[in-house]
Amino acid sequence: MSVNGTKYDYLIVGAGVYGSVCAHELTKRGKTCLVIDKRDVIGGNCYTENVNGIHVHKYGAHIFHTNDKKLWDYVNQFAEFKQYTHNVIANYKGKMFTLPFNMWTFNQIWGVNTPEDAKEFIESQKFRGNVNNLEQQAISMVGVDIYEKLIKGYTEKQWNKPCSELPPSIIKRLPVRFSWDSNYFNDKFVGMPVGGYTQIFEKMLEGSDVELGVDYFDNKEYYDSIAEQVIYTGPIDKFFGYEHGQLEYRSLRWETVTKSEDNFQGVPVMNYTDSQTPYTRILEHKWFDTKTKKELSLVLNTLTIMMVQMNHTIQLETKRIQKFTNSITI
Ligand SMILES: Cc1cc2nc3c(=O)[nH]c(=O)nc-3n(C[C@H](O)[C@H](O)[C@H](O)COP(=O)(O)OP(=O)(O)OC[C@H]3O[C@@H](n4cnc5c(N)ncnc54)[C@H](O)[C@@H]3O)c2cc1C
What we know:
By secondary structure, the chain is of the alpha/beta class. Helices cover 32% and strands 22% of the residues.
């Protein structure tokens, strides 16, 4: 019972990182919390599910990375983290390229071996006018060839808009390295929790009441009445009843395939960068894991095919993905 007679001090809507950290910190300070989530699981986007011994990142690949030692120490109290190096491969019409853009990528695209030669290629192809959109920004950073093969199709699938209509800011933070370093993250601390992410949320939510599979908006009046304060971590436009219209969210759709083959692509994340392939990435979750190669080869493999939800083409995409999944021998 809260100080003012309601059942809880806090109602927390959402059992993801934000909600769970709030619940943990408030409980530690003697507050009572009810955490609700419309999903049947805790962890929000970071939820991992144990499938045949592999920790499947059900809502997309999550790599913990930070430059903040305090944050790193904080998360390490809930799980043991193993150092992890994230390497991503881009698949453009069956040809493989290393991401983020580095000497390996320049070598694969142009056959160059030195930073000087790579810079010369970029200089010769670079956009030189005033940058007003993502296309111009990308071409001014890496030239036309890389833009056409590795950026255009992928970005347009992600955003469902031509690159010429997207803001340059989206691509500005993309690293371009003139070294042979293909490690995706530059952060001081990059890790993967041994045993998956879900255990972290289980520990954070200890001491709070948790209700899963319930939507706050289905019973808002009731939930508001049982707590002194509400912490809401869901979509902000919905919270305000779309008072200012709907935000342009992009949602993702995943198709999961289980395979007995022990190594499908040899890398956790492969990006499909052409515009024809109807998905953006395939995740092979076992490569996120911290097990030994021998242990990994003994378990069934789980792949996730990640697609951006484009409402008007979803029927077509579903058919194409069906064709793809059928073509994989299970
Ligand atoms: C594909 C993908 C990959 C990512 N990869 C990384 C990465 O590698 N590293 C990284 O640091 N970050 C990554 N992120 C970002 C990371 O997922 C978010 O920053 C983080 O999950 C945000 O946590 P949150 O608690 O704010 O939101 P969420 O994790 O979205 O949690 C919000 C919760 O609220 C619930 N909810 C919403 N509305 C309601 C309602 N009406 N009633 C009840 N419950 C509700 C939802 O079900 C959800 O569980 C990635 C994100 C995506 C989508």
